[in-house]
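so my prof wants the structure for this chain in the C-alpha cells format not the other one, which i didnt know existed until like an hour ago. anyway here's the sequence
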Amino acid sequence: MSNVKVEVKLNSSGIRDLLKSDGIKAVLNEQAKAIASEAGHCKVTQGEFAERAKVYVRQKVSEDDMEQNTLLKAVHMK
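here's what i got, hopefully its the right format
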C-alpha cells in the first residue's frame, strides 16, 4: 500500500450551483412526494435558498395523524 497524499479543494460556487441545479431539485421533489404519499394529507412545495434548493412537505393534520405520527414515520421510512 502506498502513502499517497491526496488533497481535494472544492469550488464553493460550483458546489452552490450543484445544490441549486435542476437535477438536485428533481431528486428532492421525488423524495418529498414519496414521503407525502406515505404520510397522507400532505402538500409538497419547492423553493430555493441563496445556497441550495429546498422542499417542504406540509401535512394537514387530522387527529389520527397526530396520534400515529404519520409524517414522522414516513420520513423515517425513507
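also thought this was worth mentioning. The longest strand covers residues 42-48.
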